[in-house]
Amino acid sequence: MVVEGNPCLDYIKFIIFQWFHELKVENSSNGGEKTFSSFEELVADYQSGNLHPGDLKPALSKALNKILQPVRDHFNNDANAKELLKRVKSYKVTR
C-alpha cells in the first residue's frame, strides 16, 4: 500500500492525530474495531495490509465530521450565523 503522498494518511497524521491523539477504525470484514494510538502504528498496519483502505476512509470521514459538528451546530442554532450563511450562499460568482 502506498503511504507517501496518500491524502487520507496526511489528513490523519496532520489533523486527526493532532486533534484526538487516536483513531478508531471499524473492520468491515470481521466487524471488529481497532483504536490506533499512534500514526506509526496505523501506517504499519496499512502497509502490511491489516488495515484496508476501505476501512480507513470511513474512519477518517467520521473523525472529520466530529471536528466539524460544532461549526454546523453554530450555523444551525445561532440566528445571526444562520442569516450570514444564508446571505453567503446567495452570492453569485462573477468574473
Please give a structural write-up.
The chain has about 100 residues and is mainly alpha-helical. It has four helices and two strands; from the N terminus they run H-E-E-H-H-H. It has a two-stranded antiparallel sheet with strand order 1-2. Helix 1 packs across helix 3 (about 55-75) and helix 3 (about 55-75) packs across helix 4. InterPro entries: Tyr-tRNA_synthase. This is tyrosine--tRNA ligase. It comes from Nyssa sinensis. GO terms for molecular function: tyrosine-tRNA ligase activity.
Here the CATH topology equals Tyrosyl-Transfer RNA Synthetase
Q: Please state roughly what percent of the residues sit in beta strands, choosing from under 5%, 5-15%, 15-25%, 25-35%, 35-45% or over 45%.
A: 5-15%
Number of helices: 4
Class by helix and strand content?
A: mainly alpha
Q: State the helical fraction.
A: 55-70%
The CATH H-level homologous superfamily? Tyrosyl-Transfer RNA Synthetase
Which strand order do you get reading across the main beta sheet?
A: 1-2
Number of domains: 1
Task: Give the uncertain stretches in residue-range form.
Answer: none
> Major beta sheet, specifics?
2 strands, antiparallel
Shape: elongated
Under the CATH scheme, which class? Mainly Alpha
What is the gist of this entry?
The protein is 64% helix and 8% strand. The protein has 95 residues and is mostly helical. Helix 1 packs across helix 3 (53-77) and helix 3 packs across helix 4.
Q: How does the SSE layout of this entry go?
A:
Blueprint: H1 7-20, E1 23-26, E2 33-36, H2 39-48, H3 53-77, H4 79-90
Antiparallel strand pairs: 1-2
